[in-house]
Amino acid sequence: MPETTSPRVGRPRDRDVDAALLEATARLVVERGYGALTLQAVADEAETSRPTIYRRYADRAELVMAVLIDRFGLQPGGQDLGGLEAEMLAIQQHQRELFNEPVMSKALPGLLADLSSNPEAARRFQDRFLTPRRDSTASIMDRAVARGEIEPGTDPEWICDLITGPMVMRALMPSLGPIDDELVRLTVRSALDALGYRRGR
């Protein structure tokens, strides 16, 4: 007789509490900055307890990551728009919104500092946030190869770095210039050139 697995027993997560924690995190980051973000402050703002947070999140980096996933998802570029240029523009317009989001712009310097000093937090961020988004960019290139728009063989990791690096730099150093439509256009053009794409190919 085959074994059966009993359903996991435990208290179901309260979606209202989940939403309250994310809203509280976002509000605190924007109003007070990432440095003032503590689990106790989030618990107080959301009118809950620290144990409630610890059942869901390990630290403030994971809380901020959850806010970004909730607001921006994990698959920019997942939609087939019929052509490489249109899809690269769409993903960069999405990234423009991401890096201009007040939570991201306020949290980014402190978040990067936390990730650099905490390998486990960095691994979680890589696995849960960065990798799915970079895989989505790779899927754009796979579709372009299948359409015959580009030749196979270009490293998608390099393209991800190429389109995201300038946005990270400007997010960290606003004096370099805005994250705007012109930056979207220039980064897409650079990526298309690196991919050997020619319009009407």
General description of the model:
- This protein is 68% helix and 0% strand.
- The chain is built from 9 helices and no strands.
- Helix 6 packs across helix 7, helix 7 crosses helix 8 and helix 8 runs antiparallel to helix 9 (181-194).
- The model is unreliable at 1-12 (pLDDT under 50).
Q: How many H/I helices?
A: 9
Average pLDDT number:
91
Which geometry do the CA atoms define?
A: elongated
Helix content: 55-70%
In CATH, the topology is named: Tetracycline Repressor, domain 2
Identify the notable features of this structure and list them briefly:
single chain, 201 residues, mainly alpha, Tetracycline Repressor, domain 2, 9 helices, 0% strand, elongated
Short description:
About 70% of the residues lie in helices and about 0% in strands. The chain has about 200 residues and is mainly α. Helix 1 packs across helix 4 (about 60-70), helix 5 (about 85-100) packs parallel to helix 8 (about 155-170) and helix 5 (about 85-100) crosses helix 9.
